[in-house]
């Protein structure tokens, strides 16, 4: 809509470590045995498994086979909230477990690995963020789901990549100016789509920021009929080459509906499992990450998502360990910004599909 770039926050952020992406290979018999053990434990513990599309394919299969759910961050939160199980096991990263706990304080929320962080969350410490908000009291504070409970507690709205453009359009129509955090690439994309007045926090996803525009251009030239599907956490040079830009769920839908045989995908390669199910027979090509001769830190697979393994799911359920706790006062504040989005999304669905299908 507009090419004007939104200004970035001038805040010095503490450095944080990015672990290497470690994928443990486990033989087929062991995996089958673990799956059976987990199925039995889920029943015994009255638990349901909710997984993100970027997790291990075995974990995604298990969630599907046991009445759990595999989805994007918004839908994971909604499913966990609506499901009657007393324990949620959230295979994803920490903010997803926290969101589940905030929405369901009476439920037990467990995660396979409590060290599964997110660079966007780590790059937006609550104290620095609160100072920044205090400096801009005239702005509506909108934060991405990939943030801590304390940052959500400071926000007016939480959004996800599947809802950000619609929410900001609505706020813009009411004349509101936006303070956006933490992803500067998603923020810039949303600003360009909506033309809203947005001030951006300077965070980034360590996985998506590695996708490279120049190398993608070469790849497109070598595959001229391929459709390019891009997550909006990617840099502008990658987004501008996309045929489709959207959330993880949006990318899977775009893959299903594509009328070409080849798809170039710029998001975490964990999503290939669901794309293969949705679009069987299509050739999937990873968008280039660090470029020729360079090294990348994550190479299109999130180091924290990779911490979720079948073995850890089994251990967590067996021991009922790795419980997520959220301070009650922070939770009571954070739930306001999260519920605003859930209500908004439900109303949009109602408008689009009518009362019967909503
Ligand atoms: P989605 O909300 O699109 O699933 O994105 C979450 C995420 O962490 C992407 O990196
Ligand atoms: Fe966070 Fe990026 Fe990992 Fe998503 S892929 S959880 S945004 S670090």
Can I get a quick summary?
This protein is an alpha/beta fold and 358 residues long.
CATH architecture of the largest domain: 3-Layer(aba) Sandwich
SSE succession: HEHEHEHEHHEHEHEHEHEHEHEHEHH
Largest sheet: 4 strands, parallel
What's the shape?
globular
List the domain count as a whole number. 3
Which CATH class of the largest domain applies here? Alpha Beta
- Using DSSP, what is the number of strands? 12
Strand order of the largest sheet: 2-1-3-4
Bound molecules: 1,3-dihydroxyacetonephosphate, iron/sulfur cluster
Query: Low-confidence stretches at least 5 residues in length (pLDDT < 50)?
Result: 352-358
Q: First CA to last CA: what distance?
A: 30 Å
Mean pLDDT: 93
- What portion of residues is helical? 40-55%
Quote the CATH topology of the largest domain: Rossmann fold
Category by helix and strand content: alpha/beta
Share of residues in strands: 5-15%
Query: Whole-number radius of gyration?
Result: 20 Å
Helix tally?
15
What's the CATH superfamily of the largest domain, by name?
NadA-like
Write the layout of secondary structure elements.
Blueprint: H1 28-44, E1 47-52, H2 57-65, E2 69-71, H3 73-82, E3 87-91, H4 94-103, E4 108-110, H5 119-122, H6 126-135, E5 140-144, H7 149-154, E6 157-159, H8 164-173, E7 178-181, H9 184-194, E8 198-200, H10 213-222, E9 227-230, H11 236-239, E10 244-245, H12 248-257, E11 262-266, H13 272-278, E12 283-286, H14 310-319, H15 328-353
């Amino acid at each position: 809509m507009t090419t004007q770039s939104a200004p970035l926050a001038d805040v010095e952020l503490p450095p944080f470590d990015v672990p290497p992406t470690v994928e443990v290979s486990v033989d087929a018999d062991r995996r089958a045995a673990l799956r059976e053990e987990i199925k039995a434990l889920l029943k015994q513990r009255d638990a349901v498994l909710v997984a993100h599309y970027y997790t291990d394919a075995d974990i995604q299969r298990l969630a599907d086979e046991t009445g759990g759910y595999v989805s994007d961050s918004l839908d994971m939160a909604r499913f966990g909230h609506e499901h009657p199980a007393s324990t949620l096991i959230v295979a994803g990263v920490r903010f997803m477990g926290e969101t589940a706990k905030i929405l369901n304080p009476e439920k037990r929320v467990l995660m396979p690995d409590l060290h599964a962080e997110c660079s966007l969350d780590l790059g937006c410490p609550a104290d620095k963020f609160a100072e920044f908000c205090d400096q801009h009291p005239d702005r509506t504070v909108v934060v991405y789901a990939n943030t801590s409970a304390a940052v959500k507690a400071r926000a007016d709205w939480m959004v996800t990549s599947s809802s950000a453009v619609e929410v900001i359009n609505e706020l813009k129509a009411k004349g509101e100016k936006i303070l956006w955090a933490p992803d500067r690439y998603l923020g810039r994309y949303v600003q360009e789509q909506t033309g809203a007045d947005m001030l951006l926090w300077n965070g980034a996803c360590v996985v998506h920021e590695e996708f490279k525009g120049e190398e993608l251009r070469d790849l497109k030239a070598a595959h001229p009929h391929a459709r390019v599907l891009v997550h909006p956490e990617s840099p502008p040079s990658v987004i501008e080459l996309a045929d489709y830009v959207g959330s993880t769920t949006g990318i899977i839908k775009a893959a299903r509906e594509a009328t070409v045989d080849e798809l170039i995908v710029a998001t975490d390669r964990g999503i290939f499992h669901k794309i293969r199910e949705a679009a069987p027979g299509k050739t999937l090509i990873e968008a280039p990450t660090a470029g020729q001769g360079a090294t990348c830190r994550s190479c299109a697979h999130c180091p924290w998502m990779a911490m979720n393994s079948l073995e850890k799911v089994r251990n967590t359920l067996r021991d009922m360990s790795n419980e997520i706790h959220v301070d009650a006062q922070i939770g009571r504040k954070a739930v306001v910004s999260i519920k605003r989005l859930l209500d908004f999304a439900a109303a949009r669905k109602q408008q689009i599909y009518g009362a019967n299908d909503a």
